[in-house]
Each structure stands twice: as structure tokens, then as C-alpha cells.
Amino acid sequence: MTLWSRVALAMALLVVLTAGAVGLSMTYFTGGGIDLKALLVAAALALLPALAFSWWIARLLSRLLAAEAAKHEGSHRALTASEENAQAIIKTSLDAFFQTDLDGVVLEWGPQAEALTGWARTEAIGADVAELLVPERLRDAHRQRRKKMLSEELGISAGVRFEASAMHRDGREFPVEVSATALRRGDSYVLNNFMRDISQKRLAEEQLIQAKKTEAVGQLTGGIAHEFNNMLTVITGTIDILADGVKGNPHLAAITKLISEAADRGARLTSSLLAFARKQPLQPAEIDVNDLIAEVVQLLSLTFGRHVEIVTKLDSDARPALVDRAQLSSALVDLAINSRDAMEGMGTLTLATSNVVLGIRDAVAIGVEGAGDYVVIEVSDTGPGIPPDIRDKIFDPFFSTKEVGKGTGLGLSMVFGFAKQSGGSIELGGEEGRGAIFRIYLPKAHVSVLPFTDGERPLIGGQETILCVEDDLEVRQFVTIQLEGLGYKTIVAANPAEALAIAGRGTPFDLLFTDIVMPGSMNGRQLAERMMAERPALRVLFTSGYAYGAMHAQGRSGQGIPMLTKPYRKAELARMLRRCLDPAVDPAGDPIPLPYSVQPELERFLRKNSQ
Questions:
Q1: In the CATH scheme, what is the homologous superfamily, with its name and number, of domain 285-443?
Q2: Longest pairwise C-alpha distance within the chain
Q3: How far is CA 335 from the centre of its chain?
């Protein structure tokens, strides 16, 4: 019952009570007749309970009014607190908040919305949200979508989440995610919208897609390179034998040389494929990037001619980089040739070096392995630059803007793969019409690594026994001939199971020479670990044309197991075998004499005299 209903009921009861009291008093004093004096006495007697009842009604009314006032005050406080809480949520939200009516007119504009869009609250209130946030070409579609949403969502779920392109006050566009919910207000609705910038999310998604695409192509190229390198191993190895046999015939010797050069080109092609796939074996060493660039510039100056000016801006304090010297040199030459072709043989090519310290956010954005110190090599030109529509494809394998027959499309993809495999990255800069800029980020060297050097050295064989495990029949036959030609005793196995069976029979051998990538449940690395667990003194040499697995092949005490990359020549095979079998060797594989020690003689003397 409401307050005023209670008051009306109390007044009615007062009237009834007063009338009843007067009637009873008159009847008692007059005996049924009408007497003025008796009437006054009766009225006076009836007035006393009426006054008492009126006093009770007043107190009741006062309490009711006080309770109603307290109720209204509590509701007001709750409403105020609710509004303050809503404002606090809006102000502290990580997303931008704005409220509109059903026509899209802005009713509320949060501080995050000001920061995200550049529009102040005073400018946004009362404006059409489509005019503020939606690019002009998308406004009609935005209004149609809003009408459809209102007709379908109101009264059902009253909420929707979608991604769209928003426009900043300065005109630039950026992707956003919007959560819109409808709230009933009176006879109509208002739309509460929370909006967030998803530029970083989109960038991460694109990087993930690119990484997956790169990995898929890498798996394909790695498998092709493995099989192709097996064939090249046989070709390049037998070329040496043929060359020795036709030394006295100039015509046949020339043909043999052509075959050898073709095989080398094939090997370089597979190396480029593996470089893109980031599965080539690298020989990193601490190098001075300024010295390397000086050598590259000297080479380029002899080939580019006078119409291409080569400028260097080398930081004298540039840190040493831990990188494969030959691969970095090849990468710089590839970038320089691309720049020369882009400038059509006339312009300025600039090579610069600098140091940079990357934080976590910058490291993720650039794509290097982690935060830290890096050396940056920048290659820039004065050509036409890279158009925006092909920037995302520039590092894809076999993508080329050159005419058919004037490029393989592997140059930039090889540089990209090499930089990634080295723990760094490559970044494309510059603008269309103002030249291209490529920045290679390489990790700073923390330790020195002795480089592996080739040279004309005599072949050194041996008389040890070698267990050769190779799944390819032609390669297995070729390796057997080469090993026996070097004086070694050879035991062959077509797979890890056969090799384990040979070892299980107690057959003695000094070195396990195994391919890494083999069909079945066990690869060469796992075979080596199994055998070394049973034969701790066993020496191991890996080989592969697809060297990804060898990157993680670690032997006893954390020492890396040597690997011979396919295709290889007889001289390389001989040198690597001695490097594994000799007690101590230099980086080129030559034995190092050990100092004489009396410790073994002392131990034998003590054992003999203790018996």
C-alpha cells in the first residue's frame, strides 16, 4: 500500500469515528430528541477521541513520510554510485568507449576514445559516429550494417562483435575490433560500444601466416635438396676419378671440367634453396663487418663500372658479428646486384654499418631471435624503390620482378633465410620513388670461433675400419669406393637397423659415418646416440644434404659432432675423416702433435709393482 493510500484510509476512518461518536452522544443526552445544549455536549465529548485519533494519524503520517524520504534518498545514492561506477569503468577501461543512439549520434565519448581517434569529447558529442570514425568509402556499408544489426539483434541477444577499418582524425586508417551492446532507455535504446586497435594483432597474424608459409616451403625445398644432393655427391665424387683418368686427353679433360662446373652450379642452387629454408649448415665465426664490406666493395667496384657510385658509411665502433663469412659476403653481393639492376646500371649504392640495442618489443617487430646487441648492415640505392603492393612478397622464393630468364627469384629469399638462420633478420625500408633500403640485423659476437679453411693439401687416408650407414644405394656404393681408395676398411649398412645388428654382433669398427636423414623410426643422430651409449670411445661423422637435423646433433660432453655436407669431394671426405679419427687436429683437419706425458708409464709402473 502506498503512502497516500494509507493517509486517505486514515482520514476516512477519522470521519467515520467522529460521526459515530457524535451520533452516540446525541442519542444518550437527548433520548432521541434534538436539544442544542445536549448537541454541544455530545460534540465536545466526541471531539476528544477524534483529537486522539488525529494525533495518532499525524504520528503515523510523519513516520511514513520519513521512511519514504529515506527510501528515495537511498535510491538516489545507489543511482549516483552506479553512475560513478559506470564512469570509473569507462575511464579505466583499456578499450575506447563511446555511446550512440539508434541513429548513430554520439551521446558519450570516453577518454580512451579521445586518445585512440584524436577526436575530443566536446567535438564528438552530438556528431554522427560514421562521420568521425568510418572511412568515407565504407560509410554506406556501415549504416546498412547498423540497421541490419538493430533489426536482428534488438530483443534477442542485443549485442554483436565485429572487426572493421576505423579512421583517425588525421585521416590514417587502422583495424579495430568493436563490441556493441544495446541498452534500453525509456521507450528507445542506446548502443554502448567498446573499440580496440588490433594493428599489432593483425601484424602478428600476418607474421604467423608468413612463418607457416616459409616453413612449408622450407620443408619442401629441404626434401628436394636432400635427394638432389645425394645425386650430386655421386656426380662430383666420380668427376674427380674421371679427371684423374683423362689427364692426358685435353678434349676429355675439358668435358670433365664442364661437368664439374655444372655440378658446382647445382650445388650452389641447392645451397640457395636451403638458405631460404634456413636449413643450410653454417660455419659461424667472429668477423669484422667493416673489413668484410671493404672486401665486397673492392669486388663490386671491378664489376659494376663507373656509372654506379659505391659509398660506404662504416661505423668505426661497429661490433664484431657472429656469422658465416662466406654466406654474408654472398648475401651482400646479391643485395648489391639487385640494387644495380633496379638503378639500371646508374646511381649510388651505399653500404653502412651501425650498432643497435633491441628491446623485446623491437626484437619481436623486426623478427630477430631475442633482445640484445646487434650489428646492422644497411644496403641502400637511388633506384625506384619497392612498390607497396609487392613488399609482402619480396622475400618469397622464386618471386622476381625481372624479365623471364634474368633471375631465379632466389636472391632475396636466400638472404632472408641466411639472416634468420644466423639469429638475425632482414628489414625492408625506403619508399617508392626514393630508393630501397635493406637492413640486415646480425647478432653481436660474444666468443671467437676458429673458421674452417680450405686449401690444397695432400690427401691423407688411413687403415681404420669405418661403418658406413647410407640409405641411398648409389651414394653407398660411391662412398665405399672412396673409402677403400683412401685405404680404409669399410662395413656398409643400408639403415640404422642393419647398423645396430652389426654392432650387436660385436663387429669392431673405429668410426661411424652415417647419413642423418633416413627413412624409418630412427635417424642418423639417434643411431649415433644409441651406439655411443654402448661404445663410449666411438668416433662419429655425420653427413647430409639436408642438414637441419644436424643443427641439434650434440655428442658427449656437449661437443658438437662434425658433419660433412653433401655434395662433397674426395679431399673433403679424407680431411673430415682424419679430423674425427686423429687424437687432436687443427681447424683444417691436420694432426696436432701432443706433448709427451709420463703419466701412462707411471700408472703402468704402479700397477705392476702393486701386484
A1: Histidine kinase-like ATPase, C-terminal domain (3.30.565.10)
A2: 168
A3: 25
